[in-house]
Structures are given as C-alpha cells and as structure tokens.
Amino acid sequence: MENTQAKSLSEQRLVSLSDVANLAHFRIQQDFKDIDPVIGISRNMRKSGVPADIMTIDCLKSGKRIIVVLHDQDPEQVSYQFSYKDQDPAGEFLSLANADLSEAVFYEWIKTYFTPANE
User: Which residue in 4, 20, 51, 104 has the fewest CB atoms around it within 10 Å?
Assistant: First the structure.
C-alpha cells in the first residue's frame, strides 16, 4: 500500500508539472513561431530503481534541452539543467522550490534558452 501511495504522489507531481509546462508551451507557440518545443516525460530512472521522474523540453531546431528532475526523497524541490539533446548532462543540476516552478518560469526558460542570441 505504501509503494502505491508513493507512486500515486509521484504521478500527481509529474502530471501537475506537465500541465504547467504545457501552458507555457502553448504561450511560446503563440509568441514565437520559430520555437516549437517538444515536452517529454520519462519514468526510466524509476524503472531502473532510482526514485525519480524526468521531464525534458527539447528544441529540435537547435538541439537544446531543458531537463527537470523530480526526486521522491525531496518532493518540495526540483532539479534542472540546460543541456543538449545529443549530450549527457554535465555538471551540477540547479535546484528550485517546486512551488516556484510556474508557467512563467517555464516560459522564460524556453524563451531565453531556445531563442537564438541574435533575436
């Protein structure tokens, strides 16, 4: 029963995070015709025995990727990193309070990281 409850809580966090990211995605598509981010959810870490889920936001045009990790042992925090789709994440992940990860934050991340510097 305890394992089912933990799974349910992790799924709720993942669904909630996905909903917020999708709102930002919709706004980005309206505001920036050249950016069409792709949002993905992965539970592969969990399947490998690591109690965490991952969301990726990819820019297919540039190959850039934003990684957001939800760790079960720290449900009040998310870890994130700006990286590239074809590279393993390097360096440390940054941390942000789960409550502070809003549509506006996702929007800024996507806009800032995926928009070419000359625009």
Answer: 4
Give me 11's structure tokens.
Answer: 């799924």
Q: Are 38 and 57 in contact (CB under 8 A)?
A: yes
> 22 and 39 in contact (C-beta within 8 Å)?
yes
Write the pLDDT tens digit of every residue in 60-106. Answer: 989 999 999 999 999 999 999 999 999 888 889 999 999 999 999 99
Select from 102, 73, 103 the least CA-distant residue to 10: 73
Strand partners, 83: 65
Kindly report whether the global pTM for this prediction surpasses the value 0.85.
yes
Q: How far is CA 15 from the centre of its chain?
A: 11
Per the CB < 8 A criterion, the answer to whether 29 and 12 are in contact is no
